[in-house]
Amino acid sequence: MKQLSQALIAIFTTGCLLLVITGCGGTSVQNSAQPYQGVHLTFSRWAGPDANAMAKVLPEFTKETGIQVTMDAISYDNLQQKQILDFTSHTANYDVLWVPEVWLPQYAQSGWLQPLQQYSNDPSLTPANFDLNDFMPSVLQTGKYNGTLYALPSFVQTPILVYRKDLLQSAHLPVPATWNDALKDAQYFKQHGMGGIAMPAKSSADGTDVWASFMRSAGGDYFNAQGVSTVNSSAGVAALQYWSDLLKTGPTGSLQWEWDDVNANLLHGNVAMGITISGIANQFVDPSQTKFSSDFGYLALPYKDQLSGTLASWSWAMNKDSKNPKAAYLLISYLTSKRVAQQLGELDATISARASLFTASGLVAKQPWLPAVQDALKNGKTQPLIPGSAKISQIMQRQIALVSSGNLSSQTALNQAQQQITQAMKS
After folding, report:
1. 159-310+381-426: CATH number
2. What does DSSP say about strands 309-310 and 380-381: parallel, antiparallel, or unpaired?
3. What is the per-residue pLDDT for 204?
4. How far apart are CA 191 and CA 200, in angstroms?
5. Do residues 151 and 44 make contact, with C-beta atoms less than 8 angstroms apart?
6. What is the pairing mode between strands 271-277 and 151-157?
7. How many CB atoms lie under 10 A from the CB of residue 89?
C-alpha cells in the first residue's frame, strides 16, 4: 500500500502538510442557514493517493456547509503512530481519520471509533441519493467490525496483471487469464530473450497479496471454518509453487522488486507482463512515462479455478472523541459520495469503492484497468483482519521469500508457516 504515486509522496513526506480549506458562502447541504457555520474539523490521512486531488474538492464542502477543514497529510510510516497517539491521549486533534482495512479492527476493538450507523440512517445527514448500497459489498465490509459499521470506504486497490497486447498478438499467444496461459506466455518470452513477467518478489506484503490471490483462486484460504490455519493446504502449496514458477521467467534481480520496480520494467519495455497494484496503474497511460501507453492490457490476476483478488482499502472513520460528530459525518459522507468519488477519479485516477463508477464511461476511458479491478473484487477478500494479522503477514512474507530464493520447497515453507501461525494465534 505504501508504493502509490512517488510524486505525491515526494511532495508530502517532507513533513506534515496542514492545509486549511476555506470557503466563501453558498448553499448548505443541510439548509441555506448553514447550521455548521464556524465549525472546524481536522482529518488525518496518508500523503499518498489523491491527496493533491482531495485538496481541490474540499473547498466545495466548506462552501456548502460553512465547515472549515484542515487536512493533516503525513507520510505513511508515521501515520498510525500519530493516529493512535491522538486516540490514547484523548486530545481529539482529529475528528475524522483515513484508515486502511488492516488497522480498523484494532481501532474499533479499542473503542476509539464512533459507529456510523446512526448517522447514515439520519436523512438530515444522509440524503437519499447517497446510496449506501452502491458500495461494493466486499469493500463496505472492510469498514465493519463485529457487524458494526465504523467507516465508509473511499479508495480500493488490488493486484492486477498488466501485459503487452502488441507482443502477445505478434506471438499469437493467448490472453494470460489463467494460471496455465500466463505461465506459458511468460516462458515463451523468457525463451526468446525477454523478461516474461515482472513480480514483486521482495520480502514484503506485496508478494503476500499476490500469493493470497493465487491461493484463493485455487479454493484455499488462511483459515478453515474452525479457525485452524490452512495455509499449507494443497491450494496454498500449489499457489506458492506457481508463484515460484512464474518468478523463474522474470529478469535477473527481481527478488528485490516491489510494485514500483515492476512498473518501471513494464514502462521501459523490459518485460512482456507484470503483476502490479492497481493504485499506480495510471503510469501506464501516461505518454510522458512510456512509449507503450497504448499497448498495455489489464486483467485480474491469473486464476486456477475462479477469479480472486486481494482487497486493500482505505476508509473514513470518526474519532469517538470528536466534539462535532454530526459535522464529522457530513465530511465523511461528502468524501465518499458518488459525486466526489468521480471527481477524484477524474483528477487523479483514484479507484473508489462505488460499484457504479467502475462502468462510468468517462472514468473507464481514463482508467482502462477498472474492469480488471472490478473482476478481481467480485470475489475479493482482504488479508486476515484479526488481532494477529500483522504477525501472520510477517510469517508469510518470510516463508514466501525463502521459496523465492530457492532455500525451501513450497510444501516445507508452508508447513512451517502453518505451525508458526498456529503458535502466533495462541500468544
Report:
1. 3.40.190.10
2. parallel
3. 86
4. 21
5. no
6. unpaired
7. 10
Whether 6-156+313-353 shares its CATH topology with 159-310+381-426 is answered: yes
Cell for 23? 470557503
Work out the percent of the chain whose per-residue pLDDT is above 70. 92
Cα 120 vs. chain centroid, distance in angstroms? 24
Higher pLDDT, 280 or 49: 280
Q: Domain extents for the chain?
A: 6-156+313-353, 159-310+381-426
**Distance between CA atoms of 254 and 364, rounded to whole angstroms?**
31
> pTM of the entire structure?
0.85
Distance in angstroms (rounded) separating the CA atoms of residues 85 and 149: 23
Q: Is the dihedral of CA 325, 326, 331, 335 positive or negative?
A: positive
Pairing label, strands 271-277, 195-198: parallel
Which residues neighbour 166 within 8 Å (Cβ) at sequence distance 6 or greater?
292, 295
CA distances from 374 to 352, 370, 412, 417 (A): 11, 6, 34, 31
Distance CA 296, CA 58 (A): 34
DSSP class of residue 178 equals B
The single-letter DSSP state of residue 108 is H
Residue 139: phi and psi, rounded to 5, are: -80, -45
- The highest-level CATH class for domain 6-156+313-353 is alpha beta
Q: Which of 60, 239, 298, 51 is nearest to 154 (CA)?
A: 51
Q: Which residues contact 84 (CB under 8 A, 6 or more apart)?
A: none
Phi and psi at residue 144, in whole multiples of 5°? -110, 150
- Per residue in 24-66, pLDDT tens? 333 334 444 578 989 999 999 999 768 999 999 999 999 999 9
